[in-house]
Amino acid sequence: MKDFVHLFQQLDQTTKTNKKVAALVSYFEQANEMDKLWTIAILSHRRPKRSVRTVKLREWTAEISGIPLWLFEDSYHVVGDLAETMALVHPNVESKGDKSLSEWIQFLIDLNELEEEGKKEKVLWAWNQLNHDERFVFNKLITGGWRMGLSQKLMTRALAQHTGIEENMLSHRLMGDWKPQQTSYQKLVVQPDESENLSRPYPFYLAYALEEETKALGKPTEWFAERKWDGIRGQLIVREGELFVWSRGEELVTAKFPEFDELKEKLPSGTVIDGEILAYENGQPLNFNVLQTRIGRKNVSKNLLKKAPVIMMAYDLLEYEGKDIREVPMKKRRKQLEKLMAQLETDKLLLSSLLEFKDWRALAKERDRSRELYAEGLMLKHQDSTYKVGRKKGDWWKWKIDPLTIDAVLLYAMRGHGRRANLYSDYTFAVWKGDDLVPFTKAYSGLTDKEIRQVDAFVKKNTLERFGPVRSVRAELVFEIAFEGIAKSSRHKSGVALRFPRMHRWRKDKPKEEANTLEDLQELLKLYG
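-> structure tokens emitted (529 positions)
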């Protein structure tokens, strides 16, 4: 545990990529294999399930620290991190043990079998075995609020340096539905099991947003262009008569989309397709909100299958006849994908069409049609590009349309989290309905730190009422809210729900009376809902 705490501190104290990788390589060199495995799991977002409710952890911390709960809560708002607050207010003790990281994690897993009093006894005992730094990391593990300042990509790079195994190969091995309790470091990293590769997807290739002029990309004839469909990016895998569907978030979602099951009989074994899962009916995509009704559902009923039918729009072919063809140029992969799709008789897997364009100006006109087609914009892919790992610049670009916008009035504010815990940085906005302001969305991103401090000062000086952590404020400040889509919603008083709302700019030039109306939102709903 001491080595893992030291690693955490090293990663927390630098923003330099090379230093982070070096620190992790050094850690891997000395850690035992179980600790290596759990470190990989933590950095791959495979933390153990939370075994104690945070409300109880707060109560126990206040109790053992001899302070009232309200004082702990106020301290938490100032510090902004629950694990750190718990470590700070706890009476300091000397380290009394030397359990490894994996032993402490097993300790946390075992808490699940205990009743509340048993959990309390064990947690209080643990806190008294650990010094401040160790207790802080232990609290991070038990609360699940884990941020180590290192991406999985950098972790994989460090692991590649440590093992001598190619980084791309390690990225592939670490994807999939593995659990630390069901494998070992040797099986996962050093000795890949061919049977486990049956369902394993490839790391996704991600595009950067295009911010420069398209003419900077060179000749239009060197590029493919297709719609950037607004769904869930996924990989469809057929191997040895079995079908698997993975989301970009490395979640196995096969059971959520049973309509794809027929494809295991129609696609040849050893086929992996990269595409977009879309709500789709009568030859056209549906609003993303329709697809959202399928997300998070453990059981998909016949009624839901009927209300929210889906297809996969095929973008790319990554494996064919059992061979990894990611290094084959895009134009050749595309031809093979087209040939494969031409042989299929199914309405569950469709080919994403390439757009024909003579010049960049003509393509810009196609981009302008995106919203009416329920697309987010265009994807531009160089015809000679290989299928890379992660986000790379140069060969693939996403050229998104401008967001929808509405001017709204700030009505409520709530304290933020982390470094913004002592600032009012989470806001609720409203539009006019006659003489009344109707709340319609929340947003917390888009402003600079300086602007947030200015809004925070306004909130504190102009509070009308307090509702726990929320304050209602004098209706005065106007902000332009940007969003990607709009849909009907019976859950919201306004009757609408926005997709990815954020603050585009502070309209200091605009009085509250000139903010938009609910009728304006409903017009947008008619056009784009």
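DSSP finds 19 helices and 22 strands in the chain.
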